[in-house]
Amino acid sequence: MRDAYLVGAAQTDFGSFPDESYRSLFRTAFEAACDSVPAGIDPDDVDEAVVGTLGVGGRQLGLSGPAVTEHVGLDGIPCTRVENACAASGYAVRQAVQAVKSGMADVVLAGGVEIMTDTSSDATKYWLGVSGETEWERLSGTTFAGVYAQMADAHMEKYGTTAEHLSRVAVKNHANGAKNPHAHLGFECSLEDAMNAQVVADPLTLYHCCPTTDGAACAIVASEDVVDEYTDDPIRIAGVGAASDRVGLFQRDTYTSVPASREAAQSAYEMAGVTPEDIDFAEVHDCFAIAELLAYEDLGFCEPGEAGEFVASGATELGGERPVNTSGGLKSKGHPIGATGAGQMVEAYKQLSRTAGDRQVEGATRGLTHNVGGSGGAAVVHVLEKESEVEA
Amino acid sequence: MRDAYLVGAAQTDFGSFPDESYRSLFRTAFEAACDSVPAGIDPDDVDEAVVGTLGVGGRQLGLSGPAVTEHVGLDGIPCTRVENACAASGYAVRQAVQAVKSGMADVVLAGGVEIMTDTSSDATKYWLGVSGETEWERLSGTTFAGVYAQMADAHMEKYGTTAEHLSRVAVKNHANGAKNPHAHLGFECSLEDAMNAQVVADPLTLYHCCPTTDGAACAIVASEDVVDEYTDDPIRIAGVGAASDRVGLFQRDTYTSVPASREAAQSAYEMAGVTPEDIDFAEVHDCFAIAELLAYEDLGFCEPGEAGEFVASGATELGGERPVNTSGGLKSKGHPIGATGAGQMVEAYKQLSRTAGDRQVEGATRGLTHNVGGSGGAAVVHVLEKESEVEA
């Protein structure tokens, strides 16, 4: 089947935007994504659109896909909304790849959008609660922070992971986010800040939790038949993997790993013909600090149980052997649910087109994105590579 | 790209089921779909799932795809929820076709589910309202019946379509639904019943409107590389077309046609290499009686303005030249939003495998399904054919 390429990607600022609508945010991201295509793109070239969003529901329960594409002038094209909680637009990108590989489309827009900050905190809690398992988790009072706290507890108990390890994730991601003009919380935090912040769900402090964020992001995927029209330095989506799991954490065999991430990564590596050692940088799903540590292990960047030491070693910092979340991650860049997966593509695109500025990973040739829905009910992994610099 | 086939499809009874959950309904449909595969299927053969649903949101806002696939034992496979209002699972089938054609999956489950009858009528009205255009239609008090009433008014004014024409749709579809043991309103209605029923939104009476329904439906799509394992009489998904449009009716150029249906049909015919004359039967989106009349015209079964006479001629009745909604359609079979598109596949599968019993269209060789989201913000059309009986 023919190859798919990432020919452009961009995002809005992530933050709190009371004067923006989901449509206006999507439009800003779409226009910037078109502008990011090296040889430019005529929006009329877009054959199809896939839009990831969770909660636009509050405004437009049905047809929120066409509701945003009509606003950016993409009238008439096939448009589908996809949703897998926080992995909505990671799955939108995957569906764009399938559409291209199927031969049914040459250029596909994969975008995502979320407005979160205009809900009351009770509403947000409810809203996020229902993205986990509803019947047995939310209705018994378990929050998302509570679910991830259980995973952190289990990892600390089994492997000796510490609060300092969790805090180092926050320090690293805020240091990166401080270099990202689009970040929601674009400031640095110290280890002390992270360790001593108020407890949200023990052992997770405020700095171990991502913020509630508004934003949109768009990625443009093109087939091998047309990629040359848009760039002379193609970025290939070499591997795609996805997996699902029991929606409720309590129904899984392990609390110290996210099996869906593990399976998705394995599929993506296999399809791309690479191993974790071949990955130069990664954007991983750090909705809570423990999630980034689990990702290191599930993606094969280190052995099970070693993630705490791995982050403490500096390996995943900018300049380390395998920088992770150079964008700031969900922690510092922000986590507008439906936009997060496409937002990860934005950082991968910047890194592989060597336009990441102060955050540039030197010689970045192959990157990975990792987007998780809920506490691991769904996961999707992409491997992207700068075709001119990888061996055929 | 390789061909995709419909190797099985089944649905639950459609109706009001206070003792069922969305998970239990989906399970019933999935197990029946597996049972409908001629040579049988091991559920482990399913590589991927796509689930269409609108309102499971009330129960499980995020991850409702994995929430149902885990319940039927499809642990671990990639699973995505898609939503395009009432066309949710029509798009799920389309995505299954893309997944198969992309080479990333050999067997894909495309299902849909909705529970609607447990909401209060105010909630249902709100809920359905937000599937239309929210900002300018719903917030000004326009209901879905109101939107379709405007279309009916316009068609009557422009073409002389009559209340009797609308009522003939209801009479025909109830006559068909009375032959379908899965139908929600499986009883006949007379022309007088339909004409004289209470007005819902003038000129639409109660019998011109589909009911509020619970139900689930599943379709199983397989690639040409594995289809022989499941059947020796393959039903090919020969054409797929989809299009979007302005979500709000007031933003479109015409009230007497659904442009997205027209474009989707054209794409599907082109891909299948057929014309409307080649279609032996069709399941069309008759959420309101006017919608079926518009479909006749938009799908090319008759000329613009002639739909009223077309239904009055008996052409679309069982035994007519082109039977439409032999299942009973949304009107009589019922319209559990997320399940409707996959439910249309069930009737197409029955007709083409010649297992439709009293509703069998003699010699049915090529059928069409037509699923609309909102008042035409999205539409998806499939053309299916019994491969053994069509010319190569």
Briefly say what this structure is:
By secondary structure, chain A is of the alpha/beta class. Chain A contains 12 helices and 11 strands. In chain A, helix 3 (88-101) packs across helix 12 and helix 6 packs across helix 9.
Please render the helix and strand layout as text:
Two copies of one chain form a homodimer.
Chain A: E1 4-11, H1 22-36, E2 48-52, H2 64-69, E3 79-83, H3 88-101, E4 107-114, H4 121-129, H5 144-159, H6 163-177, H7 191-196, E5 199-201, E6 204-205, E7 215-223, E8 235-244, H8 259-272, E9 281-283, H9 289-298, H10 307-312, H11 329-332, H12 340-352, E10 366-373, E11 378-386
Parallel strand pairs in A: 2-3, 2-4, 9-10
Antiparallel strand pairs in A: 1-7, 4-7, 5-6, 8-11, 10-11
How does this structure look, described?
2 copies of one chain form a homodimer. Chain A is of the alpha/beta class. The first copy, chain A, has one domain (4-119, 211-386): Thiolase/Chalcone synthase (Peroxisomal Thiolase, Chain A, domain 1, 3-Layer(aba) Sandwich). Chain A has helices spanning 22-36, 64-69, 88-101, 121-129, 144-159, 163-177, 191-196, 259-272, 289-298, 307-312, 329-332, 340-352, and strands at 4-11, 48-52, 79-83, 107-114, 199-201, 204-205, 215-223, 235-244, 281-283, 366-373, 378-386. The first copy, chain A, has a 5-stranded mixed beta sheet, with helices on both faces. Chain A has a 4-stranded mixed beta sheet with strand order 8-11-10-9. Chain A has a two-stranded antiparallel sheet with strand order 5-6. In chain A, helix 3 packs across helix 12 (340-352) and helix 6 packs across helix 9. Chains A and B meet through helix 2, strand 3, helix 3, strand 8 and helix 8 of A and helix 2, strand 3, helix 3, strand 8 and helix 8 of B. Strand 3 (79-83) of chain A pairs antiparallel with strand 3 (79-83) of chain B. Chains A, B: Residues 241-386 form the Thiolase C-terminal domain.
